[in-house]
């Protein structure tokens, strides 16, 4: 194509467009990194050229043009929660009450699963992100607790999560209070709110295994958050309030 051999910003931009026709655009960043590693000895400016706005915007545009359809899990239905409540609320298992409390709190507070449980990888587990027992308050009208940080919390200020009580038989406030009373009698000295029967923080795999035992296929951790949002929309709640 009679392009100059020197990897200028234009040459790298053209390369991005070309290679995105053959591989996934999200992999191109790794290709550019490898190119810089191999050619920096001969072209000292190549790393600066790779981070030039033209190259970055070209890659961003290619990601939009060649995006792949996301495989999304279905949202949980409100009626499905009631079925799980009917099966588990009278159980003698402490872990069943924990799962039920996590299920309802995650659904009605539109929480991400990662905000409620630990990651499976030990190196990613950070106790500073765990919800503490002393932040939990509840009365007949509502429950609340402090979420130390979350995915969208860029300033690390945390948020106060509040769930209003309802007249439903499977009221989230009642379910959470039953769990907390049992938790306090078993583990009064542990600082974290969500505790398994062995005293550990519940993990993602632990929750997902139980989720798939009680619900049909095509559900995952995000099914709680999307299910709660869908339920609120069905009640006529404004989109901006749900957001």
From TrEMBL:
Asked if Coiled coil is a keyword of the record, the answer is: no
Which of UniProt's keywords are assigned here? Answer: DNA recombination
Q: Which InterPro entries match?
A: DNA_brk_join_enz, Integrase-like_cat_sf, Phage_Integrase-like_Recomb
SUPFAM superfamilies from the xrefs?
DNA breaking-rejoining enzymes (SSF56349)
Q: Does the keyword Lipoprotein apply?
A: no
PANTHER family assigned: P CELL-TYPE AGGLUTINATION PROTEIN MAP4-LIKE-RELATED (PTHR34605:SF3), PHAGE_INTEGRASE DOMAIN-CONTAINING PROTEIN (PTHR34605)
Protein name as catalogued: DNA breaking-rejoining enzyme
Originating organism: Lentinula lateritia
């Amino acid at each position: 194509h009679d392009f100059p051999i020197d990897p200028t910003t234009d040459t790298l931009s053209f390369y991005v467009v070309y290679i995105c026709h053959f591989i996934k655009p999200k992999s191109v960043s790794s290709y550019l990194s490898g190119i810089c590693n191999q050619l920096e000895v001969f072209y000292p400016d190549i790393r600066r050229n790779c981070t030039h706005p033209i190259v970055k915007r070209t890659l961003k545009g290619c990601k939009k043009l060649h995006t792949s359809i996301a495989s999304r899990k279905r949202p949980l239905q409100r009626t499905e929660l009631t079925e799980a409540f009917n099966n588990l609320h009278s159980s003698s298992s402490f872990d069943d009450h924990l799962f039920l409390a996590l299920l309802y709190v995650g659904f009605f507070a539109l929480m991400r699963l990662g905000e409620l449980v630990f990651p499976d990888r030990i190196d990613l587990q950070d106790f500073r992100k765990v919800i503490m027992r002393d932040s939990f308050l509840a009365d007949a009208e509502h429950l609340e607790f402090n979420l130390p940080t979350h995915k969208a919390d860029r300033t690390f200020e945390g948020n106060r999560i509040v769930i209003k009580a309802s007249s439903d038989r499977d009221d989230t406030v009642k379910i959470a209070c039953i769990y907390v009373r049992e938790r306090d009698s078993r583990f009064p000295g542990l600082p974290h709110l969500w505790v398994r029967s062995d005293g550990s923080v519940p993990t993602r795999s632990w929750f997902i295994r139980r989720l798939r035992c009680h619900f049909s296929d095509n559900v995952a951790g995000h099914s709680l958050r999307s299910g709660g949002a869908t339920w609120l929309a069905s009640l006529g709640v404004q989109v901006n309030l749900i957001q």
